[in-house]
Amino acid sequence: MTQSEPTPGIPAKQILDVQNLTKMFGGVKAQDQISFSIEKGIVCGLIGPNGAGKTTLFNMITGIYQPDAGKVAFNGKDIRKTPAHRLVKAGIARTFQHVELFSSMTLLENILVGMHVRTQAGFWAAVTRIPAMKREERQSRRRAEELLEFTGLCADAHKMAGDLPAGRQKTAQIARALASEPLLLLLDEPAAGLNPVETHALGKLIQKIKQSGITMMLVEHDMSLVMEMSDKVVVLDQGKKLAEGTPRQIQRNEAVMSAYLGNG
Ligand SMILES: Nc1ncnc2c1ncn2[C@@H]1O[C@H](COP(=O)(O)OP(=O)(O)OP(=O)(O)O)[C@@H](O)[C@H]1O
C-alpha cells in the first residue's frame, strides 16, 4: 500500500475521490478543475467527445501523469505522488485503449506477468522459471488458469497472445489487469474494435467483475454499453466536467446532448 496518510474528510465508502484536478499540456487544459468521487463496488462510466480528457484522467489516477493542481485520493489516501507501479500494488489496475500484451508470449504467460505484483518471485522468475520459485509458480499458474476460466479464455491459454483475434486480445487485457487483484479497475475503451457479439460478452464480463466486488471506471464510446453497465456516469468536455448523474439523468441532459452533437 502507499505510505501516504489518509485524507481527512473522505468517507471510507468512497474508493476514489478526485478534487479540482487540473492538468495542462502546453496551453491546453486537458483537465480543468475536475471533481467527482466513486463509491466502492459501482461501475462509473466516463464519457465525453474526442479530446475531452478521459485518458488524461486515467493517466493521473494511475500515476502516469502528476496533476498540476487538485487532489486524487484512493481509499482515503492521497496518491498524487505515488508512482504507477506502487498504485498497481495498492490496487489500481487498468487496460489500455490500444491492446498492450506481450505478443510473443502465450496468454497464460501474459497473465503470470500481470500477477507478479502479488508474488514474491517477481517478473523474471515468472518468465524464466527459476527452480526455487516452482511452488509459488504452481500456485500462480492455478490462479492464472482460474482467471482465464473467469474471462472465458481457457481455450486460448497456450496460444501466442499476438495470434489471437482482436476481441480475445481485448479480453486478455482485462484478464491480465485482474491478475494484479485490483480494487479499482479502469477500462479504457474496452469495446473499441469489438463486434456486437463480442461487445455483448464484454458486458457480461463487466457484470461478473462487478459481482466479484471490484469497482470499475469505464471509458467507452459505445453509449449503449456505458448506459447499461454504469451506476453513474461522469461526462467531460474539453477538459471540464459537464455533468454527473445516473445513466437516465445523463441521457436527458441537454448540455451533454449538445456537446456530443457540437463535437460531431
Ligand atoms: N501527452 C500529451 N501531450 C500534449 N497534449 C496532450 C497529451 N495527452 C493529451 N493531450 C491533449 O489533452 C486533451 C485531452 O486528451 P485525452 O486523450 O485525455 O482525451 P480523450 O477524452 O481521452 O480523447 P479520446 O476519446 O479521443 O481518446 C487533448 O486536447 C489532447 O490533445
UniProtKB/TrEMBL annotation:
Keyword field: ATP-binding, Nucleotide-binding, Transport
Lineage: Bacteria, Pseudomonadati, Thermodesulfobacteriota, Desulfobacteria, Desulfobacterales
The keyword Chaperone belongs to this UniProt entry's keyword annotation: no
GO cellular component, as recorded: plasma membrane
UniProt feature coiled coil, ranges: none
Name used for this protein in its record: ABC transporter ATP-binding protein
Domain ABC transporter: 16-263
InterPro entries documented for this protein: AAA+_ATPase (IPR003593), ABC_AA/LPS_Transport (IPR051120), ABC_transporter-like_ATP-bd (IPR003439), BCA_ABC_TP_C (IPR032823), P-loop_NTPase (IPR027417)
Molecular function GO terms recorded: ATP binding; ATP hydrolysis activity
Record organism: Desulfobacter latus
Highest taxon, organism lineage: Bacteria
